[in-house]
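General statements about sequence and structure are easier to judge against a single worked case. For one protein, we set the task of working out the structure tokens from the amino acid sequence alone. This step matters because it turns folding into a mapping between discrete strings. The amino acid sequence and the backbone structure tokens for this protein are reproduced below.
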Amino acid sequence: MTNTFCIIGAGSFGLMTALHLRQKHKNANITIFDINKELSSSVNGGNGMLNYVLDIPITEVNKMFTIDLSHKFNNLEFYFIHIINQIFNNSNNRNLIQKIVKNNNKINCNKSSYYSHNFWNKIEDKLIQQNINIKDMTEIIDYKYSNNQIILISKNKEEYLCDKLILCTAGNLNLIKNKYYHKFIEIFSGYSSIVEVKNKPECFYYSNNIFITPYIKNQIKITLESEINSVNNNYYIDKNSSIYNKLSEQIKNNPEIQKLGFVSIKNIWRGSRAMTYDIIPFIEQIDRNVYLMTGGGYMGTHMAYNFSKWLVELIDKIPFSDLPIFNNKIFNPRLERLELIRKKYYVTTYFLIILIIIIIFCYKL
């Protein structure tokens, strides 16, 4: 019997999952759905979530820390654990990412074609060559079951059948039926821009506080600033606004942009990305024959190859291969890893509260 797989999201996670699925399931029907017009190399690996800078100092995070109480009151727990984890485990998390990626801190175009513009620019051709279907401009908003099959429902009321559904997008939280998962994912927003330069690089890389991605002709896409806030849709920034002026000055004055030979700014927009406590994705079976991979944030593209491989192994119910060992522990790509982080901080918080109560009591005596 031929399996039918549907993948929601054509970012780096979705694309790599499709390729890994094809390796394991030669005759399966595989379809990728994405809301955008075409699979685009304008984002590092796909066109779903934005990819963000490799490091944000905690002082900057605190400076930008704002909460929209109408939306965020119930998720203060996430911010608390995420920021505390950034303070105490940021270095460990990034070292672990290097173990997962098996690459150096500084991306070298000559060492890996995975980071080259050409690799991702030709990804659509690879998918087509391997008989993977692409449904662009299709927003899947819900799913339901019909006997043993899953029915996908699009915004235009079209329906699609599949045996197994893979969600590689956290931007549409409506697709994550069980709200339990919201504790471990948050959607942050940030700014990106298309900039024309004289010397377009061959690969994407991080330098001088911006993430650079080759685009078309002599244009690059850059991601330059992140904030703690949520946003549901990508949107362009008004050229007459103070935000646009502030961001354009940051772009023009950035040493890396000047080195590449700044010519002009084509546009600036604000988009979103999914994030977990430890800035490392997780995979999980979240429903009957429904699987989720999300939470890589600005490092997602780097980890997409291995996480998509582990996701396919989870679907096929086989042991994970090549899990890295870090601090004498085998890395856990599943949600359980984040559950343990949450439990640790809860226990620590309770302990500190009890300790403070004891100190106050002893002081009064």
Confidence is low (pLDDT under 50) at residues 40-73, 103-108. DSSP finds ten helices and 17 strands in the chain. The first helix runs from residue 12 to 24.
